[in-house]
Amino acid sequence: MSSREDREYLKAFYRAADIPQGLDPRLREYYVPIYDHPGMRDFDVIPKMQRAIEFSAGQSVQLLSGFRGCGKTSELLRLQSRLEHNGTRVVYLDIEDFFNTRLPVDAWRFLIALAAGFALAVERDLKEPASTRFRNFLSRVRPELGASFGVPGASVDLKGVVKDDVSFASEAERAFTDNRGTMRAEFHRFFATLISSVSLGRDVVFIVDSIDHWRGSSEQFETVRESVEDTFTQLADDLRIPNLHVIYTVPIYLDVPGLGTRYDIVNVKLADRAGAPFAPGRDALEQVLAKRAPANDLSRLLGAEETSRLISSSGGHFRDLLRLTRELILGASAVPATIGELARAEMTLRTGYTTTLTQEQMVVLRHVAETKTLFGSRAQSADEAALITLGAILRYPNDEDTWYDVHPLLKPIL
Q: Order of strands, edge to edge, in the sheet holding 89-94?
């Protein structure tokens, strides 16, 4: 192959590896059904979630948790595709359209955002604008609240008002506090009217994504955590919406007994807890890489030894699998890339992790490396959450439970 052809190969591979897992529509071209691999099926939560919806009598609540970058959104898209194939109507809301998830959340604003987000998502099926339906809902809760939403009939940026309008926020908080029973009843009534407009006799599923992004900075973690826990505790009865199947993607720290069934998506297991290689996970990730390679030709970039090392260094974390691949491509002087070039790519990613670590976090990492568990202490939770968010701590499946480990790139510094 000529150097020009090699360059075009590397450019195409880089661009394919640069598509975020689960976000870009082109992902469907690159999606690999890793849970179809023998040995991986037992870790697939999507069939269970689908059955829970299809077997429930009209409504259900499910909580989906997982570390950022482990493929939750990709799997939610797979669930959506399976449900729609069977005739279910699926409505999707990214909660970050309404919130800065680095700041604490208010229960009243969360409730309002769910109603606004659902209305906007189904607007094409309504005979009137979503903002009109939303204003009518607010007016039934409290006339002053509807009036604070703006002039009837005028064009309204629904997301902007809910997210940023200070006067609306003040009136909405007052209505939530003073008219709690009315708010819940009208909230459920609002959903009932929309569901009847869009269901056409089908089950309706509402996926509320990105709630798991609520974590704040390390200094604010406890404040943000408490706000999320308080919100879900206060709204437990509201969040069970009649005649609607709802999936909330929640932070790993959130536990609301009785709200719904919880499922966890974890990182791809590359070895068992004792360190023995787990071939199904490694084979699945090699297929993920090959799917992104031009003409599925992974061997042009990586030999067998280099492929195995890159997969091991990713820790079974989709985001880092692709980040390492991109960094390797940028540093490759020719193809196939060398072990030395892969080591430099690993060093670059490792540096990105280590520059933010504190001494307290190093203590946590050593504990996790030795015990494969978290401390389970609230005093350590801020550091644990920061490390989990960073990707320094990863979570893996076992036959009966899950376990934790330090990211392979960080083990040399321990």
A: 89-94, 204-209, 245-249, 60-66, 261-265
Rounded Cα distance between 353 and 339, Å, is 21
DSSP 386-404: HHHHHTSEEEEE-SSSEEE
Q: Which one, of 355, 304, 347, lies nearest residue 328 by Cα? A: 347
Peptide bond connecting 143 to the previous residue in cis, omega within 30 degrees of 0: no
Burial of residue 188 (CB within 10 Å: 0-12, 13-18, 19+) is: middle
Q: Give dist(CA 48, CA 282) in Å, integer.
A: 24
Return d(Cα 64, Cα 45) in angstroms, integer: 9
10 Å CB burial of residue 147 (0-12, 13-18, 19+) is: middle
Token pair of 138, please?
């607010």
What's the pLDDT tens digit per position in 178-195?
A: 989 999 999 999 999 999
DSSP 3-state assignment of 98?
A: coil
Beta-sheet pairing, 393-397 with 402-406? antiparallel
Both structure tokens of 140 = 């039934």
Report pLDDT digits (tens) over 298-342.
999 999 999 999 999 999 999 999 999 999 999 999 999 999 999
Picking from 171, 143, 174, 138, the residue whose alpha carbon sits closest to that of residue 156 is 138
Contact between 85 and 279 under an 8 Å Cβ cutoff? The reply is no
CA 250 and chain centroid, separation = 8
Give backbone dihedrals phi and psi of 104, rounded to 5 degrees, phi first: -60, 155
Longest dimension (CA), the chain: 73
Give the DSSP letter of residue 184. Answer: H
Number of neighbours of residue 87 by Cβ within 10 angstroms: 10
Helices (H), 142-179: 143-148, 158-164, 166-178
How far is residue 323's CA from residue 8's CA, in Å, rounded to a whole number? 19
Of the candidates 101, 118, 127, the residue with the CA atom closest to the CA atom of residue 159: 118
- Which stretch of DSSP H or E encloses residue 220? none
Strands (E), 67-220: 89-94, 204-209
In the chain, the amino acid numbered 398 is N
d(CA 328, CA 293): 13
Which 8-state DSSP code applies to residue 66? E
Share of the chain above pLDDT 90, in %: 64
What is the spatial distance between Cα 168 and Cα 162, in angstroms, rounded to a whole number? 7
